[in-house]
Design brief:
74% helix; disordered C terminus; mainly alpha; two-stranded antiparallel sheet; MetI-like fold; 1% strand; globular
């Protein structure tokens, strides 16, 4: 088990290092001068040169990279010249909105994937199976931003049953007392059911748009695994011992088939937590994704680099936790491979 953990941690460190180098180099090769953007087109070349020196852009790349990494792990994430505030403060203000959207989308994605995969495979009903597979194909073939616009047209503009791109709450609704700064949780803690329902309604459309592609992947994966496991001899043995079909399916087929889906779910959660820039932009969601979109347009190095590094760290930590959980659940992962002559 210790060797498994060491290998997972080593791989995670390598992934984070690669992400930091990639982010650092991409931001440096983009056209444009951040100092010129900050000072404006009428600034003198002397002022631009002085600002470049002040923010360290005239130093060698390896010096800039080391400063970037060391400052990050010391909690100094830089200063956003475009927003006039520290990056740590800006991301801290926006992170709860992104986390709330990611968790909501992940929960409904996993529940829908498990439910429809079970419905598709338990009784082997051809019509139901075709509907589920058709829905998964549709999710795979539809870009999330296009789906977001389609959902807005149908449920907001046409049917008027869900709110549109107005952020986390309606214009007349007041935010609940800040505890976690996730409105649905804070509203429940405060006993404000009206605010909770308002915040939940605003989560539905962006949550669906964010999760539909991952749902398509997860439902197909779980469906295929359930079909494969349900044909295994141990299921026949369990049925032969007198277990009802649903009991054997739930106790033996589903747990074994769910293990690969657990690993895939970790990838999905990490992707959601990293944020979806386009979805947040379409729905005017005040999360980290919207902040990063504006920073890319303004070439604000500090925000973009910090976001990429935070996303890499978060993504790796989530998947490391899932890998370790997988090793705990499935003993076969902990068994060392014995070389054969």
């Amino acid at each position: 088990m210790g060797r498994v953990i060491a290998m997972r941690v080593l791989g995670s460190v390598g992934a984070v290092f690669g992400a930091t180098v990639l982010a650092f180099m991409i931001m440096r090769v983009l056209p444009g001068n951040p100092a010129r953007l900050i000072l404006g087109p009428l600034a003198t070349s002397q002022a631009v040169t002085a600002l470049n020196h002040h923010i360290g852009l005239d130093q060698p790349l390896y010096t800039q990279y080391w400063r970037y990494i060391s400052d990050f792990f010391q909690g100094n994430w830089g200063y956003s010249y475009s927003d006039g505030a520290s990056v740590r403060k800006l991301i801290g203000e926006r992170a709860p909105a992104t986390i709330e959207l990611a968790l909501f989308s992940f929960v409904i994605t996993m529940l829908a994937a498990v439910g429809l995969a079970l419905l598709s495979t338990y009784r082997h009903r051809p019509i139901t199976d075709r509907i589920v597979r058709g829905a998964s194909y549709l999710g795979f073939g539809t870009p999330p931003f296009f789906l977001a616009l389609l959902l807005l047209i149908v449920f907001f503009s046409t049917l008027h049953i869900l709110p549109g791109p107005e952020g986390r709450l309606g214009v007349q609704a007041a935010a609940p007392a800040a505890v976690t700064r996730m409105y649905t949780i804070d509203a429940l803690l405060a006993g404000e059911l009206g605010t909770f329902w308002e915040a939940l309604k605003h989560l539905i459309l962006p949550g669906l748009a964010l999760g539909i592609s991952s749902f398509s992947f997860l439902v197909r994966l779980l469906r295929a695994n359930l079909l494969e496991v349900s044909r295994e001899p141990f299921i026949t043995v369990a049925r032969g011992k007198g277990l009802r079909r649903w009991t054997a399916f739930r106790r033996h087929a589903l747990p074994n088939a769910f293990l690969p889906t657990l690993t895939a779910g970790g990838l999905v959660l990490g992707e959601f937590l990293a944020g979806s820039v386009l979805i947040e932009r379409v729905f005017n969601w005040p999360g980290v994704g919207s902040l990063v979109f504006d920073a890319i347009v303004k070439q604000d190095y500090a925000i973009v680099q910090t976001f990429i590094l935070l996303s890499a760290v978060m993504f790796v930590l989530v998947n490391l936790a899932v890998d370790l959980l997988y090793a705990v659940i499935d003993p076969r992962v902990r068994i060392p491979t014995v070389a054969t002559a």
